[in-house]
Each structure stands twice: as C-alpha cells, then as structure tokens.
User: Which sequence fits this backbone?
C-alpha cells in the first residue's frame, strides 16, 4: 500500500512566507512559476521534478482552501472517475 509520504504533501510556508496569507493571484503566480521552471528544465529528470513541484503547489492551494488529505483523495477519485467515464484514461483501472 502507501503511506502519507507517498502522496503530495501540502506546504504551509515557502521562501515568501506562510502560504495561508496567499491570495488567489499569489497561487496562480506560484503555479505559473513552477510550470515555467518545468519548461526550462534541461533534462527529463529535472522536468519531472518541476512538474512534481507544480503538483505540490496545487495540493498546497487545495489545503489552504480547507481541503484536508481525505478531501483531496475524494476529489482525485471523483476527477479520475469522470475522466475514465469520458474515455480520457487508457487501460482499465
């Protein structure tokens, strides 16, 4: 199985301070900043790390909005189900 360290963990502060003080515009900027770093990455490994950083920012944003770990799991299940039903996911899960 997995433990909570296998899932994206939200951060509560970063180099700019506590993320609880972020506005929606701050979050959008952080996501864009990570995506820009992913695009600029020189290796597949670096790009993968930057994409993972982007996911972490998004999970942190959800957390800041009040979605705890179980809420986020439920959201991912819901979105995965919707995408499967639309035929967006290959194979069977």
Assistant:
């Amino acid at each position: 199985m997995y433990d909570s360290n296998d899932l994206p963990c939200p951060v509560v502060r970063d180099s700019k301070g506590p993320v609880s003080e972020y506005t929606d515009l701050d979050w959008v900027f952080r996501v864009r900043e990570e995506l820009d770093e992913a695009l600029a990455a020189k290796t597949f490994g670096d790009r993968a790390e930057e994409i993972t950083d982007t996911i972490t920012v998004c999970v942190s944003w959800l957390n800041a909005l009040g979605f705890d770990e179980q809420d986020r799991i439920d959201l991912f299940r819901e979105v995965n189900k919707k995408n499967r039903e639309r035929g967006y996911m290959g194979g069977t899960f």
The chain has three helices and two strands. The longest strand covers residues 13-14. Residues 18-85 form one domain. Helices lie at 24-40, 44-64, 69-85.
